[in-house]
Design goal:
- This protein is mainly α and 95 residues long.
- The protein has one domain (2-86): Recoverin, domain 1 (Orthogonal Bundle), CATH 1.10.238.
- 59% of the residues lie in helices and 0% in strands.
- The protein has helices spanning 2-19, 25-28, 38-44, 50-56, 66-76, 78-86.
- Helix 1 packs antiparallel against helix 6 (78-86) and helix 4 (50-56) packs across helix 5 (66-76).
- Bound molecules: calcium ion (2 copies).
Length: 95
């Protein structure tokens, strides 16, 4: 069982580094053009769809600006999903 935990923690480290924090708009906007496209959004939310963008696309641009992205991220609750994925690998008995 200890081996399983160690392997799981190691496998999660790379993911944790990318997902432990709520994403910043500047980080998600990979090409820094001021708009988050569906492809960019899917880097942090693989199950996101154009419908998700459209729901928060106030100016109907088809992409998310800074404000629109913040509104989306609050609704999507990236923090909660990241925490469930990481599952406290540094303190496995602290639950
Ligand atoms: Ca962009
Ligand atoms: Ca927009």
């Amino acid at each position: 069982m200890k081996t399983l935990i160690a392997v799981s923690a190691t496998a999660l480290l790379g993911t944790a580094a990318a997902m432990a924090q709520a994403p910043e708009f500047a980080e998600v906007d990979a090409d820094a053009n001021g708009e988050v496209t569906l492809a960019e959004l899917q880097e942090i939310a693989p199950d996101a769809t154009q419908d998700d963008i459209d729901s928060y696309d106030i100016d109907d641009s088809g992409t998310l600006s800074d404000n629109e992205f913040v509104a989306w991220s609050v609704s999507y609750d990236v923090d909660a999903e990241a925490e469930s994925d990481v599952d406290e690998p540094m303190a496995p008995q602290n639950r």
